[in-house]
Design goal:
Helix content is 49%, strand content 20%. By secondary structure, it is an alpha/beta fold. β5 and β6 form a beta hairpin.
Length: 167
């Protein structure tokens, strides 16, 4: 991006990441991917704040608290819900997704859904690949780090929000 008002505006943005620590091994990789995504976009580390909550169900309230401060251009929610033998998965995944979307709609702050919802641990690890945002070809599909992708989505939405507000 050339130097000028748009480049400066991108450098002035602030982001928050909220990570659920449940399924820590996976969500730590998502966080690393998100941090790398922001760094690859030349967002200064001091402009990305990270917070932790116990599980995916707690992500929306933390995102709401952060959005209400008015300090962030976008918020990334990261988590991992893996299907088990009980319907718990359906309740947690569905309610977390709905509530995260509600926070964005209520506050006007983009809140990005970076929560993996998978059938197996292996699928979760594949979607939290440590290869950053690069996609790898597998027999089934292309997978990459969904945290990295969530950071990129946050950048796009923050830029769009600023563009619309400046008109």
């Amino acid at each position: 991006m050339p130097a000028g008002p748009r480049a400066r505006a991108l450098k002035a943005v602030r982001f928050a990441i909220v990570r659920a620590t449940f399924n820590e091994e996976v969500t730590a990789k998502l966080l690393a991917g998100a941090v790398r995504g922001f760094a690859d976009a030349q967002v200064a580390a001091r402009r990305v704040e990270t917070h932790e909550v116990p599980g995916a169900f707690e992500l929306p309230i933390a995102a709401l608290w952060l959005a209400k401060t008015g300090r962030y251009d976008a918020i990334v929610c990261l988590g991992c819900v893996i299907r088990g033998e009980t319907p718990h998965f359906d309740f947690v995944a569905g309610q977390a997704a709905r509530a995260i979307a509600d926070v964005a709609l209520q506050t006007g702050v983009p809140v990005i859904f970076g929560v993996l919802t998978t059938d197996t641990v292996e699928q979760a690890h594949a979607r939290a690949s440590t290869h950053g945002g690069r996609r790898e070809h597998t027999k089934r599909s292309q997978v990459g780090n969904k945290g990295y992708e969530a950071a990129n989505t946050a950048l796009v939405m923050a830029r769009l929000r600023r563009t619309i507000k400046q008109r």
